[in-house]
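PROTEIN DATA CARD
Card holder: Right-handed parallel beta-helix repeat-containing protein
Chain length: 346
Origin: Vallitalea pronyensis
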Amino acid sequence: MAIKHVPSEFPTINEALANAKPCDTILIASGVFTNFGDTVIPANLNTIRIVGEGFDKTIIDGSACPDSVGITLSESSFITVESLTLKGFNDNGILVRSNNNIINNVRVMNTELPFANKDGIRIEGSYNMCINCQSMNNGADGIGVSGDNNYIIQCRVSNNNIDGIGISGSNNLMFGNIAENHTNSGDGIFSTDPSNIYINNIARLNSDDGIDLESNNNLLLFNVCSHNGNDGIEVSSNNIVWGNKVTENLNGIGTSSDDRSNIIDENMCTDNIENGMLIDGDSNIIDRNCMADNDETGIFLGSTSEDNCYRSNLIKNNGTNVIDKGTNNVMDSNIIKKPKKKKPCH
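Structure generated from the sequence above:
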């Protein structure tokens, strides 16, 4: 293993890579660097590391490099990129097309193109991990994932032009992320593909939904969705929505008329502007939730709802506790209390 120093030994990352071997480390000094252009990791350089001095110290500025991607990983795998900032690129800050890479402690900001796939961090490969990263003020999504079996862990995405985290692959894990302040009709987290896992994420202050899953067979566990302009959580079919806290949104948890067979269990839906839950569709299980202090309705089952089970829920202190306009919905063992002085769920 050898350490290649940029810029004292090699003026750019690309020149250091041209002289590197697998297992080498490219160490970038503190400073603002405007002349790197597109950094592309070539083939046959598996296990390379590109390491800065910290994202407040090593800043790669692409504003003088039109039509450029900050760093592209496509021909080699098991690459680590860490401890630096990429800003001002027209295209992606980081584009990952290969597999088994780590993006750690990287900040991407101010990418310019407001088009699909021009995300701050774009992951198209598989088995990649993006951890402890920040992605903000980018033209498209903060983090976009179109590959399968990737891991987005403890990242913070904010003020991006489309969504915070956009998922169009399957079997990905989103754990412990914060997605906030997407105000251009954006969701905190948005997915079109099935079979992903969302645990302990915070989605807040987004103009559309906190978490919007237009896909099936997902798990949402222990997320917090608050102060979003539309639903805190919106799901399609065959999802498990368990133990989430959904508060001060337009609606708490919502399903549409074609959505069915969700398990919605042990969630707290409180202080939402309209409904704690807004349920259309059929054959959903709604058990052991708390729906309290919502301005209009605790649980609203719409005219297209059918054969839903809502049981053992605590429904209290809402403008109206229950409205059921559907067919053959089964209500059993719920605790329903008339509006009175507001108290938290117990």
